[in-house]
Amino acid sequence: MLSNQEVAEELLGKFGDQVFDFEEPYGMLTLSTTREQIIPVLEFLNKHKTYQINFLTDLTGVHYPDNTNKEFAVVYHAHSFIQNFRIRIKVFIAEADIHIPTATVLYASANWMERETYDFYGILFDGHPNLVRILNIEEMDYFPMRKQYALEDATREDKIDALFGR
């Protein structure tokens, strides 16, 4: 059975300071890397003869509007069915340069996940075979999951605040 410590030490030995911010929330090994290293890190974990982390469970974006030069995160959840081991890898990117390499070169399932992340956050996956909107209409000129829109319509007059616990 793999341990988080074993995998973390192997990653540090291979990638040095290009992997950082190691944590274990709820027992899941979580780390960060750079956009230049995300594909080599995923490939290393995928091709490793012991780890065999060959299933991309999820890929999504997160918007942190107050984090200067790290406004967006792309989060990868990967799983080894052989070892029953899960890992989470984060890459933070700036809104001014919102590009990251596609993971479709390793995982076919990344295709739709990257399209969804682009559709909702506007993150551009370089090298993606068909990076177009998947759930919203092509004519949309904004990305609805970004935290730059009010959660409520302040102009509504048909709501009574007391009914909403305010």
TrEMBL record:
Q: Where is the NADH:ubiquinone oxidoreductase 30kDa subunit domain?
A: 33-153
Segments forming a coiled coil = none
Query: Taxonomically, which superkingdom?
Result: Bacteria
Checking Gene3D superfamilies in the record gives:
NADH:ubiquinone oxidoreductase, 30kDa subunit
A molecular function (GO) term: NADH dehydrogenase (ubiquinone) activity
User: Sorted alphabetically, which InterPro entries does this protein's record hold?
Assistant: NADH_quin_OxRdtase_su_C/D-like, NADH_UbQ_OxRdtase_30kDa_su
Q: Which Pfam families match?
A: Complex1_30kDa
Family (UniProt): Belongs to the complex I 30 kDa subunit family.
Return the protein name.
NADH-quinone oxidoreductase subunit C
